Amino acid sequence: MSNLRFHPLEPLRFPLIHRFYKAHYPAGKAKKDEIIWVGEDTSGLVCCVRFKQFEHQQLLTGMLVHPAHRGQGHGLALLAAVQAQLQSLPCFCFAFRHLEGLYTSAGFRSIADDDLPEALASRIRRYRQSGKDLIAMQFDLEATNSMPRDASLEGHG
């Protein structure tokens, strides 16, 4: 894996993230009220993840790894780098079914839609109605604390 540097996006660099989504995931649109973390190397932006804040919880949304960098562990490394964010409020995500294993490896667990806060339950229903095959998941701090740390994820932050 290349030497990525993970950090919150500086507000002045918001147009960069907008172009990144437009180029690689046009359905995802970053918003200025979200908390955005990025992973970049000397060639530029490699991955990012957004957190939408609600009153008592947050939704991890729009995680994106540049297509040329997929399958190299960058998504998992990014999720390891944002542990403080994941732990700051109860954190949920709507994972594409084929990415369930990735999120499970990062400390999320699948949950029933009934276990989602209502604001999120209505949101996942809308997304599914538009044809997206999504699984509701919640970050599980206990599972993360009991998981062995992968030494290759250390020092990214």
Key features of this structure:
seven-stranded mixed sheet; 31% helix; disordered C terminus; globular; 157 residues; alpha+beta; single chain; Aminopeptidase; 6 helices
Offer a quick outline of the entry.
Helices cover 31% and strands 28% of the residues. By secondary structure, it is α+β, with helices and mostly antiparallel strands.
Question: How would you describe this structure to a colleague?
Answer:
This protein is globular. It has one domain: Gcn5-related N-acetyltransferase (GNAT) (Aminopeptidase, 3-Layer(aba) Sandwich). With 157 residues, it is an alpha+beta fold. The chain is built from six helices and seven strands.
What's the layout of helices and strands?
Blueprint lengths: L4 E4 L5 H11 L10 E7 L2 E10 L4 E8 L8 H8 L1 H6 L2 E6 L3 H6 L2 E3 L7 H12 L4 E6 L1 H6 L11
Parallel strand pairs: 4-5
Antiparallel strand pairs: 1-2, 2-3, 3-4, 5-7, 6-7
Q: Order of strands across the biggest sheet? A: 1-2-3-4-5-7-6
The CATH C-level name is: Alpha Beta
pLDDT averaged over residues = 89
Instruction: List how many beta strands DSSP finds.
Output: 7
Number of helices: 6
The CATH homologous superfamily name equals Gcn5-related N-acetyltransferase (GNAT)
Biggest sheet architecture: 7 strands, mixed
Helix fraction by DSSP (H/I, runs of at least 4) = 25-40%
Shape category: globular
Parts with pLDDT < 50 across at least 5 consecutive residues = 146-157
Organism: Photobacterium atrarenae
Protein name: GNAT family N-acetyltransferase
Pfam families: Acetyltransf_7
Domain N-acetyltransferase: 1-142
